Amino acid sequence: MYVKGLAEELSKLGVENVIAAPAAGISDTGYRISDGDSRLKVWRFKCNEKPGDLGEIYGEGDPVAAESFKKVLDAERPDIVHFHAWSPAVSILLVREVKRRGLRMVQTYHTPTLSCPRGGLMRWGKIVCDGDLAKRPCALCAIHGKMRKGYRISDMGYGKDSGGVSRKNPPNPESQIRNAQSPTLQTLVSKLTTMFRMPGLIRKSISGIRESFDVADRIVALNQWSYDLLARNGVPKEKLQIIRHGVPSK
After folding, report:
1. The pLDDT of residue 161 is above 60
2. What predicted TM-score, i.e. pTM, was given to this entire model?
């Protein structure tokens, strides 16, 4: 709704707007005219249905989406590209392509998910974080968050999900190894691999975010706390602008 409302208001000022959004499951990049009175042109560019390697999720992003987004830029030849998201499909790869073409770029900081690996700016889920990427244990906090959300004792090979074995009596390691197709063993290996890779993955993620902040021509903060967070992370104040959410006039 934010992007739609912004595009409609800019259209009233004579600015031509085109919206582009990733869409999993489509066969190719294409556009349609949105429903309603605004008649906005909306591109849907192709992306992977499922994220690939963890390096894509936390690192440079989805190469399929990046290649598809090039088609949008080729077709529209915009003067300014305004990013409103940060995800594997909307990643530093898209930012680099925009800057490679010499286009102006704006980034809006909507929610903490843009810079916080845990997503909510709550350190260990309890302490309000100032979002300083240079000082905080982001990798450990992110691992802690994953443990809280989905890492159950049963995932570690204990409890009723591992064949009714008591939590006080761990399963026989040899029997687990012999059963190479065991979902429990596969889950354990997958989760442990992710945990060991997490520090490097978070460094990659933060590096991409910082690069985006560096090359953006303007960064929009919707409130004072996000403005302060961005300034704390080295974004020059002349690049920052607070533009609070508006209310449509009737």
Report:
1. no
2. 0.76
